[in-house]
Design a protein that fits this description.
It is a multi-pass membrane protein. The structure is a single chain. The chain has 2 domains: about 200 residues, Growth Hormone, Chain: A (Up-down Bundle); about 220 residues, Growth Hormone, Chain: A (Up-down Bundle), CATH 1.20.1250.20. Helices cover about 75% and strands about 5% of the residues. It contains 17 helices and 6 strands. The chain is globular, with a radius of gyration of 22 Å. The two termini are about 40 Å apart.
Length: about 475
């Protein structure tokens, strides 16, 4: 089947392929399980073994060390997961296998034994590695090259991620803290099972995406899989790897949410609200809630800028996202200063920090996912998505190391240092943005909005990228 006919055959809902919503709900439940477990993992590790809801009684430093290593491995596993999909299985089958591994991992984690704890973490690492890069690559495959809806599609997909994260922080976090940590882990397993069932039921809407390209009947795809990379592809790979440095810095700061900021909310924040104490894990839901509220608005803003001929390239968005997110840590500086003065800090500092972190994330993360599907060569499509998530994993490890340093340096110094570094680094990359964008060889120059007749709208100024 020709590529044009393939895209014409895709049914649409709200202006996007129906397959997007199948992947939306699959990823929603996967993130429900992962973020639900993440919301209580550190709290479970540091909870006293003799308490009413016994944990492992680890020190904060040991807990943050394991948290950083675990979250790093979760994303680093995306490299072999992407490679397996590119070479052997295709993305669709890899996502299915990943979902099965995740159901098993979260289920075993609910068993109150140390062997089950480490076995469960291992299966989750393998499951996320198989599912995460491949489901994101499938989203990009739903759109033709040059379709401006791709960025919007990734934002819709990203909202699905955060619907799951929002619900899990509230539900799994509450069940884990109030009824028992292992009940929370078990609830995460049920969520992933629902996602797996939904994915299998929606296969008819994913017929033309995520298949093993080594078995493709398309002659162009066959040739692209066999030939060496040309100069344009190599230049684009260089830009991708440089953009991954932004990713490491961003997530190294952002992932303080599950570690140091999580402990800060638990131990140093006044969480009383009208006589009721807000569970510490609930603050993890703020980021997801803000994404659900702001996601489509931010995507529409960038699409409007592009159609008006204003700077809206992916690298510009990513640099700005890092700067905005870094600025959010100045609110945590304020929280630490208030704690040092009064012995407690107000909740509004955390709320403001999460708001800025969310706007920064919306400018960087879904855009980076879309950017990879624009620049990565076909033969390395899933592998490069895997490398992106591996960089996210390294960022998580950096986050753990920074969190551990708080015991020596203090939260005030750590939060302020993170803020300054992110803002300065973002501006430095912004200075070389134009040179880097030349190496993309116009990958984003020909994007068009698709109208109701499946024809492209012209951009307000088709040559605007030349001046960026």
């Amino acid at each position: 089947m020709s590529e044009a006919l393939q895209y014409q055959k895709q049914k649409e809902l709200f202006g996007h392929p129906v397959g997007l919503y199948i992947l939306f709900f699959t990823e929603m439940w996967e993130r429900f399980s992962y973020y639900g477990m993440r919301a209580i993992l550190v709290l479970y590790l540091v909870a006293e073994a003799s308490s009413g809801n016994p944990g492992l009684g680890w020190t904060n430093g040991d807990a943050l060390s394991l948290y950083g290593t675990y979250t790093m491995l979760v994303y680093v596993a995306s490299i072999p997961g992407g490679w397996i999909a590119d070479k052997f299985l295709g993305q669709k089958q890899s996502v299915l296998i990943g979902g099965i591994l995740l159901v098993l991992g979260h289920g075993i984690l609910s068993v109150e034994e140390m062997w089950a704890f480490y076995t469960g973490l291992g299966l989750i690492i393998a499951g996320v590695g198989m599912l995460k890069p491949n489901i994101s690559t499938m989203v990009g495959g739903l759109y033709k090259a040059g379709d401006i809806r791709r960025d919007k599609g990734f934002t819709i997909f990203y909202i699905g991620i955060n619907v799951g994260a929002f619900l899990s922080s509230l539900i799994v976090g509450y069940v884990g803290e109030v009824y028992g940590w292992h009940y929370g882990f078990g609830l995460a397993a049920i969520g992933m099972l629902l996602g797996l069932i939904q994915y299998m039921a929606g296969q008819k809407h994913l017929k033309y995406v995520g298949n093993n390209t080594n078995n493709s009947q398309n002659e162009e795809e066959k040739a692209a899989m066999k030939r060496p990379l040309n100069k344009i592809e190599k230049d684009r790979m260089i830009v991708l790897f440089i953009s991954f440095i932004l990713v490491i810095v961003f997530w190294g700061a952002f992932e303080q949410a599950g570690g140091l900021m999580n402990i800060y909310a638990s131990e140093k924040t006044n969480r009383m609200l009208m006589g009721w104490e807000v569970p510490a894990s609930w603050f993890q839901s703020l980021n997801a809630l803000f994404i659900i509220i702001l996601g489509t608005s931010v995507a529409a803003y960038w699409a409007h800028r592009k159609l008006k001929g204003k700077i809206s390239t992916s690298l510009f968005k990513m640099c700005l996202g890092l700067i905005i997110m870094g600025t959010g840590f100045f609110f945590m500086t304020g929280a630490a200063a208030q704690y040092n003065a009064d012995g407690s800090s107000a909740m509004y500092w955390l709320v403001a920090a999460y708001l800025f972190h969310t706007v920064g994330e919306l400018c960087l993360s879904p855009v980076a996912l879309s950017y990879i599907t624009k620049l990565a060569p076909l033969k390395y499509a899933s592998l490069m998505m895997g490398v992106y998530f591996a960089m996210t994993g390294f960022g998580n490890k950096v986050a753990g190391l920074l969190g551990e340093s708080a015991s020596d340096l203090g939260e005030y110094t750590v939060f302020t240092g993170i803020a300054i570094f992110c803002v300065v680094f973002g501006f430095l990359v912004m200075l070389v943005r134009k040179k880097l964008e030349k190496l993309t060889h116009g990958a984003e120059d020909n994007e068009r909005e698709i109208n109701d007749d499946n024809e492209p709208y012209e951009l307000a100024d088709p040559d605007f990228n030349k001046g960026n």
